[in-house]
Design goal:
heterodimer, A: MetI-like fold, MetI-like fold, 2 domains, 24 helices, 4 strands, 74% helix, globular, B: alpha/beta, Rossmann fold, six-stranded mixed beta sheet, four-stranded antiparallel beta sheet, 10 strands, 23% strand
Chain lengths: 542, 259
């Protein structure tokens, strides 16, 4: 490389500095905190927490309910993905499944919990419809339900994506070779999917294990690690040292999950060519898939129905006539509508800052002559951010920035989100950038462009789709996240999800659902608008 | 004998194949030749049984097999990219079908295929370790073990280069001759079609343009399409190669004269 690439080196250093201050230092501080105690440095805190019955039970509970949820979510997701990729069902039905299946991602997990309470609780919508309470919602059942709804969309997208890359011609080969239908299914669908199914399981497990929103609402007496952690840090008798130990205990399974995911990548089967073949006519298979997928989606959506019903009637469940009073009240209440404005501000800023950080980082790794080891550092950062649960980042931020001018400010929340959600958008950026022709910078510089000009004039216009996707990813996640911000949002910097937690305390559920509807509406709007631009862009390129 | 009568196929109201009639004798090698999008792959899938025909009949040895499912027709196919199972080694790929139909080929016969296709030293290799030509031969062996009544080959040579192409061509001819095996090949390359097969079926826009022996096609093209797109291409190739050899011959002659 003859070019000096001064600009990219500056970007690289800035990115590294951001992650040093907002990731490395806080996490190290947290680690130190867990070893600090009344008697100086040592493992006393660990011994204290780990020998406690309460914590061990919570840990066991977390593992059990997460494993069950991950298994169920992966199974259901596989079923729906199969219905889309391997049946001759109507195209419109398939695209409806695709859209509806990912809808829950647009809502905060804390809302799922309340939706479950209002569906299956004693006065719940579905309880009324069925005439009796179907099961006890607080504790294991509620958590299981919530976690499955939460992880189903993510597992579904993962499996659907890999299934799309399976060469269907192998089914023909397997059939003409005399395999029975069951064998064909195992050899040409299950076998190439094994890695992804395992990855989906691990990913779902990780999400359930580290989520705070669902246990906050339907956990009841059934303690999980996330609730223990919250109580240690923000409960009636906060103990930061013990909290730090619990945070570390949450980190360990996360680290193991991510290592497993990395390992499982190897099992991904790569086909040279993906060919579509005509699928065998099989009305029985198609029928089962259509009914099954519909049932799954109806179950998920039925629970969400209450989000629309409860806030739009006078007083659930006693006065059930339609009214917009509650929506109007929220709009008029500055303390509530203000948080909505806060959320939008945070989401937009997170998306913009996130865009800059991921774009810069990806430029450094995908389009520069930097040393491979230096590039490896950024990839490692991406991996680490993927590993660290939101709650752990939030607590680490709380510990290190308390007392500084940054405490409880919007910039801190925004940076926290940017760091927390760095991994996925960074990889999206890196992949797209590395697919662009590698001689562009050289060509442009021969024609007199400087580096910045090339990026603005050539590279960025070819990245529009990815940039919009990254924006949308950051925006939606910033709108729905609760686990990290709950520890760093202040009274004046409240966002919707933390406000919901507060409203729960005062049992103001109408407001909870109205705010949830605002989040849902905003996210859908953003998705539609950005989706429209992405589609238009892609059509132009064809 | 394989016979197609008035075969029609369309997708979403777009006609792909219209009124296809043809007969293929036992042991013949027939190439289906045409530009991309002409319907040749659909025709192959119809014979294989993967795609059902909208109307018309497919008759094999006097039996109507139009409605017989793919698995029961007893035909077999080698795909352009071979579709070898990446999780199994070469030998396990070749003997894959024996698990389902033990005894369809004896141990000696399997060894014969391995010998014939020169795969003996590769049996324990992984699929990814093989070159394109080796993969093609493994795929052929795997299919031959199933003793297909008709062998279908989808663009068998287009992913291979130069010398390997010629040697695979010879192998295909050898197999068809030795086992008296009806072989149907889809290709877009006129040279390949005319040098490899007993008969060539030229397809254009969903119908048969000409069906005959290579010699007939060269000497008596039936229409403009065959002339313009098939013969013209070969003519250009021929002239280029002649020019090349002529130059080098002239140079040799000149060099000789100077001496």
């Amino acid at each position: 490389m003859i070019r000096k690439e001064r600009e990219i080196k500056v970007i690289y250093i800035v990115i590294l500095a951001v992650f040093a201050v907002f990731l490395a230092v806080p996490i190290i501080r947290l680690l130190m905190e867990s070893f600090l105690g009344d008697a100086g440095i040592g493992v006393a805190n660990y011994i204290e927490v780990l020998t406690e019955k309460g914590f061990l039970r919570a840990f066991g509970n977390s593992v059990t309910v997460s494993v069950c949820s991950a298994l169920i979510a992966t199974g259901l997701a596989f079923f729906m993905a199969y219905s889309i990729q391997y049946t001759n069902l109507n195209r419109k039905f398939k695209s409806a499944v695709r859209t509806l299946a990912v809808l829950p991602m647009l809502l905060p997990t804390i809302t799922y919990g309340f939706a479950i309470i209002y569906s299956f609780g004693k006065q719940g919508l579905l309880t009324k419809l069925f005439g009796r309470q179907l099961f006890d919602i607080y504790g294991f059942n509620g958590l299981l339900f919530g976690y499955v709804i939460y992880t189903l969309p993510i597992s579904f997208m993962l499996i659907l994506n890999t299934m799309g890359f399976i060469d269907k011609k192998f089914m023909v080969v397997s059939r003409v070779m005399g395999d029975r239908p069951g064998q064909t299914f195992l050899q040409t669908i299950m076998r190439p999917l094994l890695g992804t199914l395992a990855a989906s399981f691990v990913q779902c497990f990780f999400l359930c294990f580290t989520d705070y929103g669902i246990p906050a609402s339907v956990g009841g007496e059934f303690d999980v690690v996330a609730t223990v952690l919250y109580n240690e840090m923000l409960g009636s008798i906060p103990d930061f040292n013990r909290g730090a130990v619990v945070a570390m205990m949450m980190l360990i399974p996360s680290v193991i999950s991510i290592i497993l995911l990395k390992y499982l990548e190897r099992y991904n089967v790569r086909y040279n060519k993906i060919s579509q073949v005509e699928l065998k006519k099989n009305p029985v298979r198609d029928g089962i898939c259509a009914v099954g997928s519909t049932v799954i989606l109806v179950c998920v959506l039925a629970i969400f129905a209450v989000i629309f019903v409860v806030p739009l009637v006078q007083e659930w469940p006693y006065q059930v006539h339609f009214t917009l009073d509650h929506v109007r009240d929220v709009l008029n209440d500055q303390s509530l509508f203000g948080v909505y404005q806060n959320s939008i501000l945070v989401a937009v800023c997170t998306a913009l800052v996130g865009l800059l950080v991921t774009y810069g980082a990806a430029l450094a790794t995908a389009r520069s002559g930097l040393n491979g080891k230096l590039k490896g550092v950024i990839d490692a950062i991406a991996l680490v951010t993927n590993t660290i649960p939101g709650m752990v980042i939030g607590i680490a931020f709380m510990l290190i920035f308390s007392g500084t001018p940054l405490q409880n400010t919007f910039p801190l929340i925004i940076l926290c989100n940017v760091v927390h959600y760095f991994s996925t958008p960074y990889l999206m950026m890196r992949n797209s950038l590395s697919k662009l022709n590698s001689s562009w910078e050289t060509t442009a510089s021969l024609m007199g462009d400087n580096w910045i000009k090339t990026i603005v004039r050539v590279v960025t216009p070819n990245m529009t789709s990815t940039i919009l996707e990254v924006f949308s990813y950051y925006f939606v996640n910033a709108m729905v996240t609760v686990s990290a911000v709950i520890f760093i949002a202040g009274a004046r910097t409240m966002v919707i999800t933390t406000k919901i937690k507060e409203l729960q305390y005062y049992t103001k559920f109408n407001e909870v659902f109205v705010l949830s509807l605002f989040i849902l509406g905003t996210n859908i709007l953003v998705k539609i608008i950005l989706g429209y631009f992405i589609k238009r862009k892609e059509q132009k390129e064809k | 004998m394989l016979e197609l009568k008035h075969i029609k196929k369309s997708y979403d109201n777009v006609t792909i194949l219209e009124d296809i009639n043809l007969q293929i004798q036992d042991g013949e090698i027939v190439s289906i030749l045409g530009p991309s999008g002409c319907g040749k792959t659909t025709l192959l899938n119809l014979v294989l049984g993967l795609t059902p025909a909208d109307s018309g009949q497919i008759i094999f040895n006097g039996k109507d097999i139009t409605k017989v499912p793919m698995e029961e027709r007893g035909f077999n196919i080698v795909f352009q990219d071979y579709a070898l199972f990446p999780n199994l080694n070469v030998y396990k790929n070749i003997t894959y079908g024996l698990k389902n139909k033990p005894g369809i080929s004896t141990k000696e016969e399997v060894d014969e295929f391995i010998e014939l296709l020169g795969l003996k030293e590769h049996l324990n290799k992984k699929i990814e370790q093989l070159s394109g030509g080796q993969k093609q031969r493994v795929a052929l062996a795997r299919t031959m073990v199933m003793k297909p009544k008709i062998l279908l080959l989808d663009e068998p040579l287009s992913a291979l280069d130069g010398v390997i192409k010629e040697s695979i061509k010879e192998k295909i001819k050898e197999i068809a001759r030795d086992f008296h095996l009806t072989t149907i090949i889809v290709t877009h390359d006129p040279e390949e079609a005319l040098t490899l097969s007993d008969k060539v079926l030229i397809v254009n826009k969903g119908s048969i343009s000409q069906y005959g022996a290579p010699q007939e096609i060269i000497t008596a093209p039936e229409n403009n399409f065959v002339k313009e797109f098939i013969l013209n291409q070969l003519e250009i190739k021929k002239n280029n190669i002649f020019a090349l050899f002529h130059q080098s011959m002239a140079r040799t002659v000149q060099a000789g004269a100077r001496l």
